Amino acid sequence: MLSAGGTGVATYARSVRAAQMEVAEGPLLVSGRDVDGDDTGIRLPRLARALRPGVRRAQRAAERIVSPDIFRVAQVYFNIHRDLLTVRVPGPPGLVHWIYPVPIRLEGWANIYTVHDAIPLAFPALSPINAGRHRLLLGAVARHAARIITVSEAARDEILEHARFDPSLVVNLSQPVDVSARDPEAAVDGLPPRGYLLACGSVEPRKNILRVLAAYQIASSRLPLVVAGPPGWMSESIERVIAETPGVVRIPQASRDEVLNLIADARALIMPSLAEGFGLPVAEAMALGTPVLTSSRGALAETAGDAALLVDPTSETAIATAIDHLTYDDMSCEALRRAGLMRAATRFGFHDFASRLAMLYEEVLRSAFRVDCT
Questions:
Q1: 172 with 67, same domain?
Q2: Whole-prediction pTM
Q3: For 122, phi and psi rounded to 5 degrees?
Q4: What is the β-pairing status of strands 147-150 and 170-172?
Q5: Of 116, 122, 115, 120, which is closest to residue 158 (Cα–Cα)?
Q6: Residue 158's pLDDT band (boundaries 50, 70, 90)?
Q7: pLDDT tens digits for 333-366?
């Protein structure tokens, strides 16, 4: 997840890592690769390695904590034992931040987990994740977690409602948006600046692409609609409609820089998703000065605030009307652009996020080890 590109969760992982580098000295990485940096020596089937209950041992190697194939083994271990895989690390304990609810804990350490949303529980029809298993996993995580971090108040509310966690355990730290490092030369050819509408993200039911396509056909706008993002869960039927809709340009693969440049050059971002934990493209569009059309409910409305055009995501007519508004009303687009830039700067700054993260780490360390973090 720390490599370039990837999902919103991967972008979050890189943000957390960058924040850790700012607030801590020599933070480690938990690695599932062998000490020499690869996993080619792993031969024993995961099932056999996961069958044995009890503690697994890790090694400290340079800047890493290493337990080969640990992330995949842990998933199989949870399927068998319905508990987190315990890993023992030599040396003094510390704080470990898992940026996803993985079924692992470091023994004797303060374990923090980020749970980005409760979509598999709140909207099971919109997620490929098995709701029953996920509920059990979140319960196991809660038994061992020092804190659970999430990325919006809407996500926190849904987590508390559907996972039934102790409210004192769950903290919303939001997440940062940093688009400053994008390469402006990594552009997609053939798309005129401010001359197209953009829907981006994996193509799956949760992203509401079918209603966007229907609304686009109702609207009078003649701007191309670019659908950028890889095929996702249950994408086959959606891809067929994309291919059959006049005026739609499909970009299934794009680098991180290309996606950011697609957002920066779009007339507007069209993202009336049905469920999100945060809605990173909305925040990125605001940070890049691109007007946003998004959902009037949940985390997307929270992320957008009053700096976007909010619509009922289930109404094709409302989406179509908003598309035309963004196409033809230059003054409104300029107002949204300015409001978005201001909101991104004041709500989603990296250093503010790093400060919030450091404060939480200090609180957890004081509570777990009674240490003075000053």
A1: yes
A2: 0.93
A3: -80, -35
A4: parallel
A5: 122
A6: very high
A7: 999 999 999 999 999 999 999 999 999 999 999 9
125 and 22 in a common domain: yes
Task: Taking residues 226-254, report their average pLDDT.
Answer: 97
Give the strand pairing for 29-31 and 225-228. unpaired
318 Cβ neighbours under 8 A, 6+ residues apart: 215, 311, 312
User: How far from chain centre, in Å, is Cα 310?
Assistant: 21
Q: Give the confidence band of 370 by pLDDT, cuts at 50, 70, 90.
A: confident
What six digits make up the tokens of 304? 């957008």
Residues 13 and 103 reside in one and the same domain: yes
Same domain, 213 and 140: no
Residue 317's CATH number: 3.40.50.2000
**pLDDT at residue 152, rounded to an integer:** 98
Structure tokens at 207: 């992203």
Residue 46 CA: distances (Å) to CA of 43, 53, 75, 141: 9, 13, 10, 21
- Which among 259, 91, 291, 112 has a CA at the least distance from the CA of 188? 259
**What is the per-residue pLDDT for 41?**
44
Amino acid identity of residue 147, one-letter, is: R
Amino acid letter, residue 171? V
Same domain, 123 and 226: no
pLDDT tens-place string over residues 54-106: 999 999 988 899 998 999 999 999 999 999 999 999 999 999 999 999 999 99
Which amino acid is it at 189? D
pLDDT tens-digit readout, 212-222: 999 999 999 99
Range 2-10, long-range pairs (CB < 8 A, 24+ positions):
2/29, 4/255, 4/256, 5/255, 5/256, 6/256, 7/202, 8/116, 8/278, 8/280, 8/281, 9/99, 9/100, 9/116
In sign, the C-alpha dihedral spanning 229, 271, 289, 332 is positive
Q: What is the pLDDT of residues 133-146, one digit of tens each?
A: 999 999 999 999 99
Bridge partner list, 171: 149
Let me know if residue 189 belongs to a domain: no
Total residue length of the chain: 374
Sign of CA dihedral 43, 47, 51, 55: positive
CA distance 9 to 1: 8
Whether residue 327 lies inside any domain: the answer is: yes
